[in-house]
Amino acid sequence: MSEDPTSKGKRFLEEIDEFCGSRRAWHVKHDEPTDPKYGWLPTERPIEKHIEYGVINLDKPPGPTSHEVVAWIKKMFNLERAGHGGTLEPLGT
Q1: Model-level pTM?
Q2: Which one, of 30, 29, 28, 52, lies nearest residue 40 by Cα?
Q3: Are 33 and 39 within 8 A, CB to CB?
Q4: 82 vs 85: CA distance, rounded Å
Q5: 7 and 27 Cβ atoms separated by less than 8 Å
Q6: What CA–CA distance (Å, rounded) separates 74 from 42?
Q7: What is the pLDDT of residue 91?
Q8: Which residues touch 23 (CB under 8 Å, ≥6 apart)?
Q9: Which candidate, 26, 1, 2, places its Cα nearest to that of 12?
């Protein structure tokens, strides 16, 4: 029997908590069916959609500029467009 989306989502959150060493209790207050054409559970989202709409949280090492790192990401994922949401002070990491 297939697991329902609410149970899958709750299990996904519990797995993240366990990975992070957290022990929270998750409770579903309201369960409403969702049309699959409006999105996916994170574990079921196609990689193409992660790349198209995703965000990369990056702890940039000292040295390369934010612009250089964006250029590397564009090359690695064969993207036409990419950008960054901010820069760090010159001595920051």
Answers
A1: 0.47
A2: 52
A3: no
A4: 10
A5: no
A6: 23
A7: 60
A8: 17
A9: 26
